[in-house]
Write a structure and sequence with these properties.
InterPro entries: Elp3/MiaA/NifB-like_rSAM, Methylthiotransferase, Methylthiotransferase_CS, Methylthiotransferase_N, Methylthiotransferase_N_sf, MiaB_methiolase, rSAM, rSAM_horseshoe. Monomer. This protein is an alpha/beta fold. It is about 40% helix and about 20% strand. The protein contains 13 helices and 19 strands. The strands form five sheets. Strands 2-1-3-4-5-6 form a six-stranded parallel sheet, with helices on both faces. It has a five-stranded mixed beta barrel with strand order 15-16-17-19-18. Strand 5, helix 5 and strand 6 form a beta-alpha-beta unit. Helix 1 packs across helix 5 and helix 12 runs parallel beside helix 13. The chain is globular, with a radius of gyration of 23 Å.
Length: about 475
């Protein structure tokens, strides 16, 4: 069965590459007549999965013949949307209104909207009725079809809508345009089977499906040959990787295979669900020379009662036991997390349980959110919605606790020499370079831009809390 699916994926990729070639010839002819290249602009909302999708979209558009621009006043504008929170939808509607005005002065402008928001029937209906100037609408499952949808739009001059409820297809062998030449994201799986009661992701990203391990290895080898030294493995729940394959493989075993790829120096991954983080994975991380010294382990709440209502399938006690195992194996690991405040039914006692976990774990940092209803999820209709003023007051207290933990964790590597992957020239001071430690903290230090993309030794002179100031150690 897996061979058949792989064959279908390859056929679909070949079909799309043919369309890209056809469109490129068409655009080349147009360029010969006008002497002007068409431009494109992508606006990405949301998570790293969306950012990775936007790299694929950008790669397709560049292959066709578009040139990227940083303004929405372009020939092709695409919004890659997020829908985790409803205010994200409202932001998109506001920006679409602005695009409508731009299109009035440039009727040939093509506007496309894709991503998670387009998997919601109500959002699509609103766009069809209130934003009729939109040209192309597609979702999360058929990003690879962009060239085909563009071709249909150019030939038909009508709104093109192509939305899939779900798919088994995994089409990866298409152009992509990485933001950085030396690091890359790699999708290892798509979708989610967890159905946390507050989360819309399983409804818009579909059910869990893993990529073939050899396809992942081959992609990473190709990246390594192209100069990539750091890869980020992406999935809604990477710890459950491999379960849907005909020949199951664990995430830990996949990491071991990636560890052996020459040229790859750093391995990161997002996101880990606590209920699926195995002893095998902890052991692999402990013994690895390449897996980064950082683990993002979402908590969401410290109350076992609320965790059950959230359908997280772990308890406060089991979460703390897991953290203890991780810290015993890797004492210096950097732990970060996600926490929701004000979930329906949250009491003061529930919130104190969250504070207790925060104080016991001592996270390096945390993404904290005040709960907001997400239409289409079970939590949106639950009784006991927490008043905004109460949620805000708890949120402020949580931030203070997080910051206290971060302050303790910060600076533990001060006055040591550490490996730093140099990423870019510092945005505020061009005499400085900015790089990242294995634990994901930033380091700013004087240096030449020729070092960008290299891993160098830096002496960490001073901790500034969320970053270090350092000095390059010349080898």
């Amino acid at each position: 069965m897996e061979r058949k699916e792989t064959s279908i994926n390859e056929l679909e990729a070949a079909k799309q590459l043919n369309i890209i070639t056809e469109l490129k010839a068409r655009f080349d002819q147009e360029f010969e007549k006008t002497g002007k290249k068409k431009t494109y602009h992508i606006e990405t909302f949301g998570c790293q999965m969306n950012s990775r999708d936007s790299e694929k979209i950008s790669g397709i558009l560049k292959q066709i013949g578009y040139e990227e621009t940083d303004t929405e006043d372009a020939d092709f504008v695409l919004f890659n949307t997020c829908t985790v929170r409803e205010n994200a939808n409202n932001r998109v509607y506001g920006r679409l209104g602005y695009l409508g005005k731009l299109k009035k002065s440039n009727p040939d402008m093509i506007i496309a909207v894709c991503g998670c928001m387009m998997q919601e029937a109500s959002a699509v209906e609103k766009i069809k009725t209130s934003y009729r100037f939109i040209d192309i609408i597609f979702g999360t499952h058929n990003i690879f079809k962009l060239a085909e949808l563009l071709q249909i739009r150019l030939d038909s001059k009508r709104m093109v809508i192509d939305l899939w409820k779900d798919t088994e297809l995994i089409v990866e062998n298409l152009p992509n345009d990485r933001k950085y030449s030396f690091k890359a994201g790699v999708n290892i799986m798509y979708g989610c089977n967890n159905f946390c009661s507050y989360c819309i992701v399983p409804y818009v990203r579909g059910r869990e499906r893993s990529r073939n391990a050899q396809d992942i290895i081959d992609e990473i080898k190709a990246f390594a040959e192209d100069g990539v030294v750091e890869i980020m493995l992406l999935g809604q729940n990477v710890n459950s990787y491999g379960k849907t394959l005909e020949e199951p493989i664990t995430f830990a075993n996949l990491l071991q295979k990636i560890e052996g790829i020459d040229g790859i120096e750093r391995i990161r991954f997002m996101t880990s669900h606590p209920k699926d983080l195995s002893d095998e994975l902890i052991e692999v991380m402990k013994n690895s020379k390449k897996i980064c010294n950082h683990l993002h382990l979402p908590l969401q709440s410290g109350s076992s009662r609320l965790l059950k209502i959230m359908n997280r399938r772990y308890t406060k006690e089991s979460y703390l036991e897991l953290v203890s195992k991780i810290r015993k194996a890797m004492p210096n690991i950097s732990l970060t997390t996600d926490i929701i405040v004000g979930f329906p039914g949250e009491t003061e006692e529930d919130f104190k349980e969250t504070l207790d976990v925060v104080n016991k774990v001592g996270y390096d940092s945390a993404f904290t959110f005040i709960y907001s209803k997400r239409t289409g999820t079970p939590a949106a209709t639950m009784e006991g919605q927490v008043e905004e003023t109460v949620a805000k007051e708890r949120f402020d207290r949580l931030l203070k606790a997080i910051q206290a933990g971060s302050a303790k964790a910060a600076g533990k590597d001060e006055h040591t020499i550490q490996k730093v992957l140099v990423e870019e020239i510092n945005a505020q001071d061009s005499s400085l370079l900015t790089g990242r430690l294995s634990n994901n903290l930033l380091v700013h230090f004087p240096g030449d831009q020729s070092l960008i993309g290299k891993i160098v030794d830096v002496y960490l002179e001073e901790s500034k809390g969320f970053y270090y100031m350092g000095k390059l150690i010349n080898s």
